Amino acid sequence: MTPEKQIVSAPESTSTTEIEPLGYLASYDAVIDRDYAYAFWKETKTSDGSFTIRFKGACTGGGKLDPGHPSFRSNLAAAARNGEEHVVLGFSMKPSESDPRQVELRTFFDTKTLAPQHMEAHLVTRYADGSPTEPQVLRMDWPG
Q: What are the tens digits of pLDDT across the range 54-85?
């Protein structure tokens, strides 16, 4: 989609924050007659170069990944101990028997060094009969 057609988008850069759009993902949910849409961006403080990954949702919440926060690394370490190659952080919805919707932002990482590698946004909505739409997946390289 072009930026004019996006339902949500990244904010503009300011004198204190540089914004770098990373991607956009959207899917229509016929059951509630609304679009689920997500904009993803890297937000860098111009004062010290530290950054966060943010996403904003239409129809649901968004989230923030702060790679400099101790909890981010501890989440990766816990997942590695459990043999997992990614963690789901920020707002998420897991599919159930009665509701196939799925919203996940997965951060993939090296299980030995815990260095983030890339992110994947997964989105499944519903057709009018309640069945799941085809999964929409957006892969984004980890910004460095």
A: 999 998 888 899 999 999 999 999 999 999 99
Task: Please state the pTM of the whole predicted model.
Answer: 0.90
CB 106 within 8 A of CB 87: yes
The set of residues, in sequence order, having a beta carbon less than 8 Å from that of 125 and lying 6+ positions away, is 27, 28, 29, 30, 36, 101, 132, 133
Is the model's pLDDT at 3 over the cut of 90?
no
- Which residue, among 26, 60, 54, 50, has the nearest Cα to 41 in the 3D structure? 54
Q: How far apart are CA 73 and CA 107, in angstroms?
A: 11
Within 13 Å, how many C-alpha atoms sit on residue 135's CB side?
Answer: 12
Asked whether 95 and 124 are in contact (CB, 8 A), the reply is yes
Q: Is the separation of the CB atoms in 46 and 57 below 8 Å? A: no
In eight-state DSSP terms, residue 3 is G
> Tokens 């299980």 identify what position?
111
Instruction: List the structure tokens of 118.
Output: 């890339």
> Could you tell me whether strands 116-124 and 136-141 are parallel, antiparallel, or unpaired per DSSP bridges?
antiparallel
Across the chain, mean pLDDT equals 93
Q: Return the H-helix or E-strand segment holding 138.
A: strand 136-141
